[in-house]
Amino acid sequence: MATEPEEQQYTTSRTLRELPILLLAAGLIAFLIKTFVAQAFYIPSGSMLPQLQINDRVVVSKLAYRVHEPRRGDIVVFDAPKAAASQAPEPKRNPVARLIRDVGSGIGVIQPSTEEFIKRVIGLPGETVDVKDGHVWINGHQLIEPYLPPGTVTLPNGFRFPITVPKGDIWVMGDNRGNSSDSRFFGPVPEDTVVGRTILRVWPVSKVSFL
User: Fold this and answer.
1) What are the extents of the domains in the chain?
2) Backbone φ, ψ for residue 164 (5° rounding)
3) Which of 62, 105, 119, 180 is catalytic?
4) Is 92 a catalytic residue?
5) pTM for this structure?
């Protein structure tokens, strides 16, 4: 009959043997969820102030746009356009480090290694977007934007308006119109580069809310 120290030693040894399998399973689950269902993201900049603060964490649904097309007012995450993305190569990592990063980025505790932007959908395919008199205009009508602080002024920032959004693209802007790299700089965003729709803020806990 095994003594208590022997049982503890056996349990510890078994746990150490099972640890790689547990890490692999966790990595696989995180990968599948991140790829097909949802992913947590840091908010890295102030472009969506005041609604989203720097270092907030949000959950992005990857299923939303399988049910419906992007809608005006949605807050979306998309791959950074080539004109705006950093060209710095991703550092090489060993398989364990890569696994840890996949798990961490999947649950939102580590910033994903690829670059993504988060902005609000303003113009839809086929619509004509204009910026004049400090406001956004869609198809000749001033866009009412209740999510912007009173007195917000939207400037063209050098982009030549008006523009008709091509089929398959969307026009996006940050809520912080004076400090946002958005479609006024890099133009329309292809819908096939959209990662998903932001549905929930999960951090800080005091500000958990649907978006």
Assistant:
1) 4-210
2) -95, 125
3) 119
4) no
5) 0.72
